[in-house]
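Long-time lurker, first post. I've been practising inverse folding by hand and with some scripts of my own, and I keep getting stuck on stretches where the structure tokens seem ambiguous. Below is the full token string for one chain I'm working on. Before anyone asks, I'm not after the true native sequence, just a reasonable design that respects the backbone. If someone could post their per-position residues I'd love to compare against what I wrote down in my notebook.
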């Protein structure tokens, strides 16, 4: 029922159709660029996408599904399934396949409008359609993606290249009566994805400043830790690890060599919007590799108590509690490297 499936019997893939349409749109805009305002350009692009959804998707063309409303911010959509003979079953009610196509299409439309179809593909992994009452008139479905949802998906795709999402929508008749509920799980992927994530180690003033920026955001602004506790005078003799995603520093750590071939791992932090993608684990692993390069035999760390299990997965052993900082209980942990 996804765009990828319904096009399987045609010569062109869905993304190729979109590329052709967008190229036509871009050529038209190029010819008219001196005459058209930005809003008019967006309207032309929306018309091309609307045409794609209504006429180039065979199932939508077959059922007569139309986009009847697009919100001003292009975030919310209303689609219509007409009550006509070829959409009905023997009982003269709207066929379940047509209802499913209507409901699933609105999810695809929301993604199409917010993510470049040339660079993204969404396919259905599971579908659940609950019928509430028979459809005996034109049917409608409304769905949208909030700005926060779109931003979050962009972040996930920039880090992982793909993600699974679950969307739900309600199908109603012209009087607003509930006809069906669709709950779908989709796999959304960025085509040609080449994750630009790297970790660099530096001791320069630029590396320190980049580290300061993340530390200020995470420790001072988010956790309320006093700035003077962070400025311990060890930055210039430490190795700063910076995690980059698409050219932006999103995570850090600091490795400070001390006497007797020991080192202190500290200042491990990841920007809030990039947590949950395994970046912190990669930073800790890179820190351990850097410690081995420096011939370090033992690493000490003083993390928050709730992070004990996280650091134990790398081999750190709990030693003792180490006091509290602004209501954050700290613990001392160590890990031998030889």
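-- Answer (accepted) --
I ran through it position by position. Result:
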């Amino acid at each position: 029922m996804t765009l990828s499936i319904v096009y399987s019997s045609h010569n062109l893939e869905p993304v190729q159709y979109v590329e052709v349409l967008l190229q036509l749109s871009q050529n038209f805009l190029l010819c008219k660029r001196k005459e058209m305002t930005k809003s008019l350009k967006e309207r032309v692009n929306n018309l091309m996408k609307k045409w794609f959804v209504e006429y180039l998707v065979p199932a939508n063309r077959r059922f007569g599904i139309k986009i009847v409303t697009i919100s001003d911010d292009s975030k919310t959509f209303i689609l219509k399934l007409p009550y006509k003979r070829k959409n009905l079953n023997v009982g003269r009610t709207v066929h379940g396949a047509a209802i499913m196509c209507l409901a699933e299409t609105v999810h695809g439309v929301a993604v199409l409008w917010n993510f470049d179809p040339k660079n993204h593909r969404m396919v259905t992994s599971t579908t659940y359609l609950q019928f509430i009452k028979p459809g005996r008139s034109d049917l409608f479905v409304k769905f949208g993606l909030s700005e926060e949802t779109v931003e979050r998906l962009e972040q996930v795709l920039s880090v992982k290249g793909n993600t699974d999402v679950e969307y739900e929508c309600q199908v109603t008749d012209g009087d607003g009566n509930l006809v069906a509920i669709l709950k779908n799980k989709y796999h959304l992927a960025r085509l040609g994805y080449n994750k630009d994530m790297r970790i660099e180690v530096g001791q320069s003033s630029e590396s320190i400043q980049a580290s300061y920026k993340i530390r200020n955001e995470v420790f001072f602004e988010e956790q309320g830790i006093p700035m003077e506790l962070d400025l311990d005078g060890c930055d210039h003799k430490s190795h700063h690890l910076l995690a980059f995603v698409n050219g932006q520093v999103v995570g850090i750590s600091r490795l400070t060599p001390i006497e007797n071939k020991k080192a202190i791992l500290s200042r491990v932090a990841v920007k809030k919007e990039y947590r949950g993608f395994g970046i912190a684990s990669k930073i800790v692993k890179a820190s351990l590799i850097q410690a081995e390069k420096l011939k370090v035999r033992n690493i000490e760390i003083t993390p928050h108590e709730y992070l004990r299990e996280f650091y134990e997965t790398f081999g750190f052993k709990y030693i003792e509690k180490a006091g509290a900082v602004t209501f954050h209980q700290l613990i001392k942990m160590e890990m031998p490297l030889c």
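A couple of notes from the structure itself: The CA atoms of residues 1 and 101 lie 7 Å apart. Residues 1-12 have pLDDT under 50 and may be disordered. Happy to go over any region you disagree with.
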